[in-house]
Design brief:
Layout (H helix, E strand, L loop, with lengths): L1 H8 L5 H5 L13 H30 L5 H37 L5 H12 L1 H12 L1 H17 L21
Helix pairs in contact: 3-4, 4-5, 4-6, 6-7
Length: 173
């Protein structure tokens, strides 16, 4: 029943996909509602947090009772937060928007589906990389943790010097 429904929904499904094993989770769209609910809940909390932080920092900056260094650190922190939010939007809302539009338009594109799942799957590594790039204390902690682990495992540190490698000019005849 589910295969027949899928073949009706996607009439242009290539034969190489039809010939292979197909796993159909559900034929109704209510299965993805918990995912959508959690994404909207997370996004709502994140955007509320960002709005409150931004508003609070702007109000304290207007009072002029902060040093220039503190204002600079606050601007740097806000830029880091904004980059994390943009990454969240790209990694979570872009796939959700594509899925929503493709369902409404009855559009099927296997390459698009694969790309969307890859983008969603890379959210964890992308968030980690943004944290390492944007927050110096986090970056230093991770570096020190890796350094201590390397020392504990007694790995040799590669020594990089300014000396040019010596080249032998011996020619064998």
């Amino acid at each position: 029943m589910a295969l027949e429904f899928t073949y009706k929904q996607i009439p242009n499904l290539p034969e190489e996909i039809k010939s292979g094993p197909i796993f159909i989770l559900a034929i109704d769209y209510w299965v993805q509602m918990p995912f959508n609910f959690m994404a909207v809940l997370s996004a709502g909390g994140s955007f509320t947090f960002i709005t409150l932080i931004s508003r609070n920092m702007n109000s304290t900056t207007r009072r002029n009772n902060l040093s220039e260094n503190t204002k600079k650190l606050q601007r740097k922190f806000l830029k880091a937060i904004y980059s994390q939010v943009m990454l969240f939007v790209i990694n979570v809302f872009t796939p959700m928007l594509y899925i929503f539009v493709s369902i409404l338009a009855n559009y099927y594109n296997q390459m698009g589906n694969n790309l969307i799942f890859i983008i969603g799957g890379l959210h964890g590594i992308n968030s980690t990389l943004i944290m390492l790039w944007a927050h110096k204390p986090y970056r230093e902690f991770c570096y020190n943790l890796a350094r201590r682990a390397r020392e504990k495992l007694k790995m040799a540190n590669p020594i990089v010097g300014n000396n040019q490698p010596r080249v032998s000019t011996t020619v064998l005849v």
